[in-house]
Fold this sequence. Notes:
Helix content: 10-25%
Order of helices and strands: HEHEEHEEEEEEEEEEE
Structural class: mainly beta
Number of domains: 1
Distance between the termini: 33 Å
CATH class: Mainly Beta
Amino acid sequence: MRKLILTVCTLVALNAANAQDFKHSVSLSFGAATPLNDFASTDLTNTNAGGASDGFCIDLEYKGFLFHEKIGLLAMVKNQFNGVDNDYIALQTPQNTTSSVTAWSLGGYMAGAFYDVKVGEKGFIHPKVAFGILDANTPEWKIENGKNVLVKLESANGMAFSTLFGADFGWNLGNFKLQAQYDFILANPQFNTKAVDGTGTIISTSTINQKMQTYNVKIALGYNFGQ
């Protein structure tokens, strides 16, 4: 009987150690956003080149175990900024003029699911996938001669369906957790661009579809609750 009690207690302890120790969590992450493929291209013969350079992202994420003890829901508020490559700017700046260029921006809301893989007693891996609608803005581009604006390509806005694939690697520290997050973001917004001269008169308009692909590496601090 004593052995049976010890065996039962051992099994209960093992099950408790492997059970999900929280039902919900929120985390704030910050990291680098590296552009890929057409979005990063500086080839002037590539009509889909975005000329984007490395940037940064700030994301707020919620996770909750609602479907299964291993499968949960995630929701994300995303903000991302990518600059424009200096060499790409120089290639498109006429002699005796200067260019001032703002950044690409991307923000919006995403929702999806993750799978919980336990690593030891406190570690975890969360493969994840999410989808959403993201709002993007092109850089504003001014070509100037001294203090005079010769041409301004105004910032254009576009919305697009977006996909995220990634994984989080983390460590639970009581109610807190530390994570390294790796995400791949894909979106293809359409922009209606407009160029004006120094007086604000429209010079040209065009419609472009910009494939925006980035690889994001982030560090996140989270809080677990609802045990």
